[in-house]
Amino acid sequence: MDNIKYIEGGKELLDKVESLWKKLNSHHLKNSVHFKSRYINNDFQGRINKLESLEMKVVLVMDSKLGTIIGYCISTINDKMDGEIDSIYVEESYRSFKIGDKLIRDAINWLNENNVRTKKIAVAEGNEGVVEFYKRYGFYPRMMILEEADN
Predict the structure, then answer these.
(1) Most buried among 35, 44, 103, 113, by the most CB within 10 A?
(2) Each residue's pLDDT tens digit, 72-105
(3) H-type helices in 7-82, by residue range?
């Protein structure tokens, strides 16, 4: 699609992902069985505050015809040089255009260029369906972390 544009930057782009981040949070809320209150109480500014101390790359995906942000990817590196594809979202109507593929590949390339020790992606409980997508890029479950469920 000629109308799809990618905008790369850092922390200065974070505020542009808020509406899509809220959609992703709603998706997790809807699909979570045991941790709904985490998503009910999750707010964008709190999430951004947790990312502030990390090195990061933010990629926005824009439909230039509509002037709308339709996807994003946030990749981070902590002070121990552990890399993470921290958050990724593409509007459902654009998912057949390989936008997620480009976002993941670009994120992996950035992490590799920065010589990270490890690369990881955390998958929320209730969203296990995305694991097959991530396996295409060499990401596999290594361990399961169990937490006490919400009451």
Answers:
(1) 103
(2) 999 999 999 999 999 999 999 999 999 999 999 9
(3) 18-31, 36-40, 44-51
CATH number at residue 14: 3.40.630.30
pLDDT confidence of 147, banded at 50, 70, 90? confident
Asked if 74 and 107 touch (Cβ cutoff 8 Å), the reply is no
93 belongs to a structural domain: yes
Burial call 27-41: b when 16+ CB within 10 Å, e when fewer:
bbbeebeebbebbee
What is the number of helices (H) and of strands (E) in the chain? 5, 5
Domain residues for the domain of 24 are 4-135
- 74-86 in b/e form (b: 16+ CB < 10 A) is bbbbeeeeebbbb
In a domain? residue 117: yes
CB 29 within 8 A of CB 39: yes
- For residue 151, pLDDT over 70 is answered with no
Which 8-state DSSP code applies to residue 150? Answer: P
Amino acid at 84: E
